[in-house]
């Protein structure tokens, strides 16, 4: 079975990409509007890119009529934004911000969010988010009239109290339950966790590691 992306319409490519590349992390991005109010919008074309320098990438889109969406316009103008990560506790509120709010109306109060002051960027983070990443724009690449790729450097991280051990920087997984985006209106929880250890070269080369674990077993 083969799908030729060179001939498929964009809506069909979107359907295939978003339903196969899963789960995807969710960035609830907060930016400042020109009038100083805070805009909030969720994105699942998002991920971290590296740790040195610490980078995030965001897939930004325009409206069907090619008018810029608020987040895209704000990042282009100010160069600063916050990636707020999404867990089960704020899931419904995150979805609420995806409604088609008018440009002059902030999503913050209707979605029952409160804001905190950032340390290094001129934007606000969502106080209820488990993790918030303060970011400065490095570049925005335009690939089409409706699609930008924003690359930002993380300059600070806010964490919910008790979520990260300050000495060893380990996450408390009993308290952190991030959501992943699947497709359409579907999401996934992250309770079913397991570990797999990288084998030595010798065990990997001769298949010993696979023989020990089996095809179905996960250690």
In short:
By secondary structure, this protein is an alpha+beta fold. It is 18% helix and 32% strand. The protein contains five helices and twelve strands.
Question: In words, what does this structure look like?
Answer:
By secondary structure, this protein is an alpha+beta fold. Helix content is 18%, strand content 32%. The chain is built from 5 helices and 12 strands. The protein has helices at 10-20, 70-78, 91-97, 201-206, 208-213; strands at 24-25, 27-32, 38-43, 46-51, 54-61, 80-85, 115-117, 124-126, 131-144, 147-159, 180-181, 187-188. The strands form 3 sheets. A 7-stranded antiparallel sheet has the order 3-2-6-9-10-5-4. Strands 1-11-12 form a 3-stranded antiparallel sheet, with no helix packed on it. The radius of gyration is 20 Å and the shape is globular. It starts with 9 loop residues before the first helix and ends in a 6-residue tail after the last helix.
Low-confidence stretches: 214-219
**Strands across the major sheet, in which order?**
3-2-6-9-10-5-4
Question: What do we call the CATH topology of the largest domain?
Answer: Pnp Oxidase, Chain A
> What's the CATH architecture of the largest domain?
Roll
* Series of H and E elements: HEEEEEHEHEEEEEEHH
What are the salient characteristics of this protein?
three-stranded antiparallel β-sheet, Pnp Oxidase, Chain A, 18% helix, 219 residues, alpha+beta, single chain
């Amino acid at each position: 079975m083969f799908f030729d992306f060179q001939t498929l319409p964009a809506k069909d490519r979107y359907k295939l990409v978003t339903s196969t590349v899963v789960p995807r992390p969710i960035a609830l991005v907060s930016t400042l509007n020109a009038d100083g109010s805070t805009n909030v919008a969720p994105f699942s074309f998002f991920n971290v890119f590296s740790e040195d320098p610490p980078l995030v990438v965001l897939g930004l889109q325009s409206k069907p009529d090619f008018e810029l969406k608020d987040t895209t316009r704000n990042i282009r103008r100010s160069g600063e934004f916050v990636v707020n990560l999404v867990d089960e506790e704020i899931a419904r509120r995150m979805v609420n911000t995806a409604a088609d709010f008018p440009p002059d109306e902030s999503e913050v109060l209707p979605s029952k969010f409160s804001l905190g002051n950032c340390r290094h960027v001129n934007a606000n983070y969502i106080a209820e988010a488990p993790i918030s990443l303060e970011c400065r724009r490095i570049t925005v690449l335009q690939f089409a009239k409706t699609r930008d790729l924003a690359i930002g450097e993380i300059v600070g991280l806010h964490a919910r109290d008790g979520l990260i051990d300050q000495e060893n920087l380990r996450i408390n997984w009993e308290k952190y339950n991030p959501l992943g985006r699947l497709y359409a209106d579907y999401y996934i929880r992250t309770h079913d966790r397991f570990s797999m250890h990288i084998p030595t070269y010798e065990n990997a080369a001769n298949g010993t590691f696979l023989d020990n674990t089996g095809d179905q077993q996960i250690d």
